[in-house]
Design a protein that fits this description.
- The protein has one domain.
- About 70% of the residues lie in helices and about 0% in strands.
- The chain has a two-stranded parallel sheet.
- The chain is globular.
- The C terminus is likely disordered.
- It is a multi-pass membrane protein.
- It is found in: Endoplasmic reticulum membrane.
- It comes from Anopheles culicifacies.
- One of its GO terms (biological process) is cholesterol metabolic process.
C-alpha cells in the first residue's frame, strides 16, 4: 500500500485544484478498498449496459444512414425510437459518472464531501435542475464564472452573467464531444445555449407537478434528439465516400449533404396495430 501513497497524493492534489479552492478539505481517515472496488464494478457494469443499448437499440436505426436518402417520416420514426434508449443512456451515464465514478474517486482520494448531486429528478424548474444535476460543476461555474461576471464584467447584470455561464458550459461540453467523435456538430451547444436558456424562463413560474412533468418530457425528447443527430452524423461519416481530413471537413456536417433527409409533403405514419 505504501507504493500507492505518492501517486494518490499527487492525484488528490490535482483533484482538489479542479474544485473550488479551500484552505482545508474534509478528509476521511482511511481508504475503504471494498467501497472502491464496488464502485469500480458499477462503472464497468454500466459501461457495458450503455454499449448494449447503443448497439441493440440505436445502431440498427442509423447504421445504414448515408448509403441512401431517408424520408422525413423515417427520420421522425427514428427520433421517437431513440427517446427510450436516449433516456436510458442519460440515466445510466448520470449514475456511472456522478455516482459510481465520483464516489469511487472520492473514496480513493479520501475526500469526505460526497455531495456530487442533489435530487434533480424532483425539480420543477430547469434552473433547479441545473443547480442539482452536477453540484461540483455548478459550484465551480458559480464561483469562478457567474460571480466574477456579476461583480466585475457585467456590473450586477445577472441575466448576462447567466448567459456567460451557459456559454462556457456549452463550449466545454461541445469540445469534449468534438474530440471524442472527431467531428464538430454543435447539437450539444445549441441545446445548452439556446434551449437551456429558454427553459430557464419558461419553467420559472410553473407549478411543481406541471414543471416536473415538463422537465422530464424535455429531457426525454432532448436526449432522443441528441442521440439521433449525433448517430446520423457518425454513420454518415462512416458510410459516405470521399470524406476529407481538412479542418473544413471536420467542421462541416456530412449528414446534411451526403444522402440526407428527403422531404415528402404527403408522408404518413401507419400505426402498428393497423398493419395487416
Amino acid at each position: 500500500m505504501q507504493i500507492l501513497n505518492q501517486p494518490l497524493r499527487t492525484l488528490s492534489g490535482v483533484y482538489r485544484h479542479l474544485q473550488i479552492y479551500r484552505d482545508e478539505y474534509p478528509r476521511t481517515k482511511q481508504i475503504r478498498w471494498r467501497v472502491v472496488a464496488y464502485h469500480a464494478l458499477e462503472v464497468i457494469g454500466v459501461v457495458f449496459y450503455i454499449s448494449f443499448i447503443l448497439e441493440r437499440l440505436l445502431a440498427p436505426l442509423y447504421e445504414k444512414f448515408g448509403h441512401a436518402k431517408i424520408t422525413s417520416g423515417s427520420f421522425v420514426l427514428s427520433l421517437f425510437g431513440s427517446i427510450m434508449p436516449g433516456s436510458l443512456t442519460f440515466l445510466c451515464a448520470f449514475y456511472c459518472l456522478l455516482h459510481a465514478w465520483m464516489n469511487g474517486a472520492a473514496e480513493l482520494m479520501r475526500f469526505a464531501d460526497r455531495m456530487f448531486y442533489r435530487d434533480w429528478w424532483n425539480e420543477c424548474t430547469f434552473a433547479g435542475y441545473i443547480r442539482s444535476w452536477n453540484v461540483v460543476v455548478h459550484d465551480w461555474l458559480y464561483t469562478y464564472v457567474y460571480k466574477d461576471c456579476v461583480e466585475h464584467v457585467f456590473r450586477n447584470c445577472k441575466p448576462l452573467a447567466t448567459v456567460a455561464v451557459f456559454t462556457v458550459s456549452s463550449v466545454f461540453h461541445e469540445l469534449i464531444l468534438a474530440f471524442t467523435f472527431r467531428f464538430f456538430y454543435p447539437v450539444m451547444f445549441v441545446q445548452f445555449e439556446f434551449l437551456g436558456l429558454m427553459l430557464m424562463f419558461v419553467t420559472k413560474r410553473m407549478g411543481k407537478d406541471v414543471g416536473n412533468v415538463l422537465l422530464w418530457l424535455v429531457l426525454s425528447i432532448g436526449n432522443g434528439l441528441h442521440l439521433s443527430l449525433y448517430n446520423m452524423e457518425y454513420y454518415a461519416r462512416r458510410n459516405c465516400p470521399d470524406i476529407g481530413e481538412s479542418i473544413v471537413d471536420y467542421m462541416m456536417p456530412v449528414s446534411w449533404s451526403c444522402n440526407g433527409i428527403s422531404h415528402n409533403p404527403n408522408w404518413t405514419i401507419t400505426a402498428p396495430w393497423s398493419l395487416q
